[in-house]
Structure formats: structure tokens, C-alpha cells
Amino acid sequence: MDQDNATHPALARDAADRTGIRRLLAIMAALRDPQSGCPWDVEQDFSSIAPYTIEEAHEVADAITRQAWEELPGELGDLLLQVVFHAQMAEEAGMFDFTDVVRAVSDKLIFRHPHVFGDESRDKSAQQQIKDWEAIKARERAAKAEKGVLDGVALGLPALTRAIKLQNRAARVGFDWPGPADVLDKIAEESRELVEAKDSTDHAHLTEEFGDLMFVMANLARHLDIDPEEALRLANAKFTRRFGAIEAALAAQGRHPEDSDLAEMDALWNEAKAAERA
């Protein structure tokens, strides 16, 4: 069926808004209709949709990393769909609707930018604006009765991102190492503890030690002004690229990785590495 000539009753009233948000909201409402909607969409709830929301955000980041600008509108649309999906479920439950979502973020942006929408001067550095932003957010947390320094750091964030946010919060009240050298010393200490635990039959303890090392690695990234999520994404991309080179080299001989051995593949890896650096 031609999308521009869709005759579903829920869409007819918004036909004039073919590219606007009202059309998307109408489509989502139709999909969630208990009587005539899509059974899969109707069965979903906040918890079941949350993983898709995270996944779509990562796909937006992936398109940007790859500079796949032709894909970005579609990926942003998929992410917007997640917002609309959550808002529709909330409206059905009588909690809030999409208008409330838009109002909340609009009010927040205005409140957090008094140098643009208020009477504060714009004549200050980006660093000062970041400090002002953090001060405003601190007042917002106080208004929510968040008393602890670490209160309000979302549990659903990717673990490395949450580690950075927790460490930044603690650093603002002075709980931080002076510099990268101190963090490197701590990494050496945590590495030794992980080595000591590797032969343990207590898997929970081994997991704990591994987590400690990753947490300190995240702290080193923070001190070096590195986004650990981005660094790991780049490392994943590099591994994928170089392993692809191994597969291509073997394929040229009519072979597959399972027909090779570690020594040969390691040599091909080094060749791919050298070719990248040439």
C-alpha cells in the first residue's frame, strides 16, 4: 500500500502532516490500539522497550562514527520512535504524554541557558559555562531531594559511561587522584590483585577484581580526557578491520580462518597492522 495514500482511520486526520510529528504520534497510537493495533507493539511495556532505546542510541553514535550521513536521518528517526513509544505507553497509563516530554526538555534547556534566554552575560569561556551548567544541575538535584553526591546518576547508563559520571561527581568534592601517574599506580595494584585472583575458584571474587580494574581504567581515561566508550568502539572497529584483513588474505588462498592456526593468523594480523601504519 502506498504510504501517502494510507486509509487507516487513525492516520486520515493527520494526512496533511505527512512529515511532521503528529503523523508519527498517530501511527504509534494506531500500533498500540488494543483492538486493531499490532499484537507485538500492544504487548510491550517500558522495561521491554528500554533495551531497544539504548540500542538505537548506539546506532546513532555508530552512524556518526562512520560518518554515514546518509544513514543518520533513519537512525535518528529510529531513536525518535523510542521516545514516541515510551510517551504513548505513558499516555495510556495516565502518567504523561508526548507534549509533556517536549515541554520538560524545552523548559530544561531554557533554565540551563540563562546566558542565552535570561539576563546573564554570554561573555564567558566554554569552561565557565560548563561549571555554571553543573551548578544549575546541582540545584535541580537539590530540588529533587537528592542529598548524596552520587544520587541521580542513572543506573541504566552503559557501565563505562556511568563510571565516568560517578568519578566526575566524586571529583567535584575533592575525591580524586591528583593526576594520571597516581591512577597508573592504582592500575598496577589492581592488575596484581586480578592476577592473584585468576586461579581462584570464587568466580564472584574474580569478577569483582576484574570490575575494579575496569573502573580504574575508566578513571585513567577521565584523567587523560578520553571517552572510554569511544576508545573501546574504535578498538572494536580496529579489531574488526584487521581480522577482516586476515580473512581476506586467507580467502585469496582459498582458505578460511578455521583452516589456519594462531601463528599464521598472528603474522597476517601484523601485516595488516603494518599496512595501516604505512
UniProtKB/TrEMBL annotation:
InterPro entries: MazG-like_dom, NTP-PPase_MazG-like_C, NTP-PPase_MazG-like_N, NTP_PyrPHydrolase_MazG. Residues 44-117, 183-242 form the NTP pyrophosphohydrolase MazG-like domain. Signal peptide: none annotated. GO terms for molecular function: nucleoside triphosphate diphosphatase activity. SUPFAM superfamilies: all-alpha NTP pyrophosphatases. Its EC number is 3.6.1.9. NCBIfam families: mazG, PRK09562.1. PANTHER family: NUCLEOSIDE TRIPHOSPHATE PYROPHOSPHOHYDROLASE (PTHR30522:SF0). This is Nucleoside triphosphate pyrophosphohydrolase. The lineage of its organism: Bacteria, Pseudomonadati, Pseudomonadota, Alphaproteobacteria, Rhodobacterales.
